[in-house]
Amino acid sequence: MHILITGAAGMLGRKLADRLVRDGGLGGREITRLTLADLNPPSAPAGFGGTVTPLAADLAQRGTGAKMVAHRPDVIFHLAAIVSGEAEADFDKGYAINLDGTRDLFDAIRAQDGYCPRLIFASSIAVVGAPLPSPIPDEYHTTPLTSYGTQKAICELLLADYTRRGIFDGIGLRFPTVCIRPGTPNKAASGFFSNILREPLVGQPAILPVPDTIRHWHTSPRSAVGFMIHAATMELSAVGPRRNLSMPGVSATVADQIEALRRVAGDQAVALIERRPDPLITAICQGWAPGFEARRARELGFTSEDDFEQIIRVHIEDELERRA
């Protein structure tokens, strides 16, 4: 089996590749080839004995999609994108990569005769925006309030239509905000959700730019990778024609996050959070989704954590204890 991961140098791309190697395959099939595509593609995951093709890929350049599918991968995990804050700050770049780059990939698949791979698309809960019911039902229409959310919503429509036409067998996963993200802060407007937990857990200060009352929808990196593995191995006919699904997660306010941190790491960790209001980030966050019903996804076997304390403990197990 040949697997292509776009955005392979990103956090989820690296974790996905590591999980595939650790599992010894995908859906009972041996993985013999990994194509890892990104602007600066990563090296082979530790322990992989098959062929690894690192592919320098700029989705803003037409023709990149054709390079990525030249060897006809069986399963494609399309994770490559620029994040919400950067897409909002740079209109042209956001549309060039998140929309035009995705369509370039889809059309490269269409151009290959007799080729119909499984394609897992990393969408986002940013496809909806306030005012919103709580929880948001599966049937709720897309109402994006950011360029990033608009780009993802358009790609969801393309995925459904290309799947309907038999060009590929696709499924779009609307990821909750992934928290706690390891590593260093990125340009995502949602980055503070991870920052105010990750840094205090290792004794470092963190900035909180929004009020404690901001509520959002979260999952851990471990669960996010689990979503992708399940989407790649499940029987997609069970999903039906509505191929874009809101993933399960944990609805929590910033105050809920902080109290979960206090229970796990104590008052000394919470004291490292400095409140420094940012009106721009606050304005963006106030349009975000507070929580989803995610009934369809749960019925189809997708799972996440039950509360925010579990999310923190997953980070400690996967990132701090494992590397200690």
User: Which bin fits the share of residues in helices?
Assistant: 25-40%
Which strand order does the major sheet show? Answer: 3-2-1-4-5-6-10
Q: What would you call the shape?
A: globular
Structural class, from secondary structure content?
alpha/beta
The CATH fourth-level homologous superfamily of the domain at 2-176 and 219-248 and 293-298 = NAD(P)-binding Rossmann-like Domain
CATH topology name of the domain at 2-176 and 219-248 and 293-298, in short, is Rossmann fold
CATH class of the domain at 2-176 and 219-248 and 293-298: Alpha Beta
Oligomer: single chain
Rg from Cα: 19 Å
Q: Sketch the major β-sheet.
A: 7 strands, parallel
- Helix count, per DSSP? 12
Strand content: 15-25%
List the uncertain runs.
none
Gap between N and C termini, in Å?
Answer: 34 Å
What is the residue-averaged pLDDT? Answer: 95
Element-level helix/strand string: EHEEHEHHEHEEHEEHEEHHEHHH
Report the strand count.
Answer: 12
